[in-house]
TrEMBL record:
It comes from the Eukaryota. The chain crosses the membrane at residues 30-50. This is SITS-binding protein. PANTHER family: GLYCOSIDASE FAMILY 31, SITS-BINDING PROTEIN. The keyword Ribonucleoprotein does not apply. Keywords: Membrane, Transmembrane, Transmembrane helix.
Amino acid sequence: MPHARNRNPSPIPEVTWDTGLKEMNETWKGAIACLGVAVFFVMTIGIIYWQVVDQPNKNWILRGTFSGLIWERRTHSLVIQTLAEDKTYVEIDVGNVGNPDIEVPFVRNLCWLNKTEFCYTWDSVAEVKISLEVNEETECYSMTWVPVHCHVELKDCFSMTNVSWYGGASVRGQTWPINDQNATMQPFVVSDLKNNPFGFGSALERYFLGSSGVAVLVSPDIPLQLGLDSRQQFCLQSLPSMEREPLQYTVCVAKNVKAAHQEAVQQLYQHSRELPNMNALWLPFWKLLTNMDSGPKVERELRTFSNRLKRHQLGEGVISLNEHSTTLLSDMDHDYLNSRKRGMSKRLTRDLPLVKLLNISITLSPFLGVDTTQFHTSLMDGTEAFWLSLPSAPQGQLIPVMSQWRGKFCVKLNITNPGAVSWFLDRVGSLQAHLGMEYVVLEGAEGNLFEEQALRPPQALGGDKYISLLADMATRIGDSTIVTAGTRSSHKPLFVRMSPLQSDWSPMGLKGIIPSLLHHTLLGYNFLIPDAVGGSLSGDLVTDEELFIRWLEITAFLPVISFHTPPWVCGEDRVLNLTQAYIAKHQRDVVPLIEKYADEWQMTGNPIYRPMWWLSPSDPVTFTIDDQFLIGDEVLVAPVLEKGAVQRDIYLPDGGFQWQDSRDAQVFDGGTFLQDYPVPLEDVAVFLRRS
């Protein structure tokens, strides 16, 4: 029987089709997985490349006719630039809102139906709304940040890089511009710099001006804190509260710094501007220094001092009494005064109270000692509401809040109480009737009595509202009233007394005069009573003859010359002769100029005293000049501020005109830098503009 033959001679073993398909599927799955990983890797690299390299860093938010607002996503900044991006007006760091470590694209406009508005919710922390207003010469961006939750602090910082900033508040050692100032974050309110040397003083306005042609105006109705980091930035910060207080400000840009300021003035001061009593400009102010313990002694000292002024041929002036001397005079027995007025003898006629024969200024404050009869009477007759008070319980009795003033425990006038204001005005009227004075100095408005003691103030007295209300009351006293603090009141017919300075050559002394002058006038406070010649902060008499002379040379060009140290006390006859000469020069040359430009200030708001950039607003050299000033557009004053110097460098701004030295009639082109220009001790460099 033959052997049966194998029907499948192939050496390949038999396999089922299911097994082959399974092995093939596993192979393809591995390949597909590898391909997916590769695709994912490529996509990740692409996304990273798009976010880091390819995605534009700038996002245009709003566009005007010549400027636009940009979001810089890497720096968390809002930037206002020209549309051509060839000039940056301002850079605002808003990275302090929300989580600064999270990059926010900031591109989705929730107000997309309106091309002049931008809305966004930031990191579930704050909502921002920005609106653009286009004017003929300026474009303004109004910004409002509102916290989403309670107790959120909103903070925006304005860069100082390539921008010189001006405005804000006075500080000890005033600088011009403010870029070199340092201040910890603190409430932006006026404080007494003598008691709080690291705080903010008068004058203070919520207004900042940048040399790039930018103006920042902060809403007057919100609590505000301010901090300055020298040469880096200044920051606006809201106060956290249950009310979710917003942070509101407007940024306006213009072609240059002068145009930006002129637009800001129209927005900042919408009241008609009034002039104070201009007769005060013609009179030097003399401070009566001696300490006395009775009214008759004050009167005798007035007589002695007046006779000395006449004997030294210093002319008519205003003799200033401090608050203590004012109190002594006001407490004099009025029957005694009246009997002297009725006296028939020549002796009694000659001995009339000198206050009826001379210009004097008295000093008052809204404080009243708790040991005085007037205060105890107010508690007895139910007028305790005349003083700043808080209720002892929600419906409890009012308890006056005590503070200290001039070393005594006092209460402070409730300026929101019409009865209290009438009582104070009646007191001033009584003093005017008995003493015949024309000038009244109101001290003590600085600070917030409640906030200084960590007490919640009434809504009507939050922040600096007390100062504004006191200025209203001062206006009712008359246009010869002098206040020591100014905020939101530059349009009122008042004089503002500048903060006292040290008797030295430092920025807290002589070198601080011009920066302080330019600061005040930029904010609208043109009618100044400068600190006394030689400085009065210490209260001591000035013994440095050279310092006295150089100080006198500056103040002769200011609205008023005031003295703390009589010239016959400091130095030899030369000091007295120079004092006579500069008082005469002030009356002959300076006062008419001030009166001329006071009319311009009333019409336009342009300052009387102007910085160098006013005539050359695009010249970077002028942005930081802090030792020269202009009176109007026609007189440039360049005093010597260094001890022992008889020469100085002077820059004459360029505006298509020439300058003539008032001493020797030399003529120089605008834009000229005069190096080591001679200025003898008894002189000051003054240049007159020639068309």
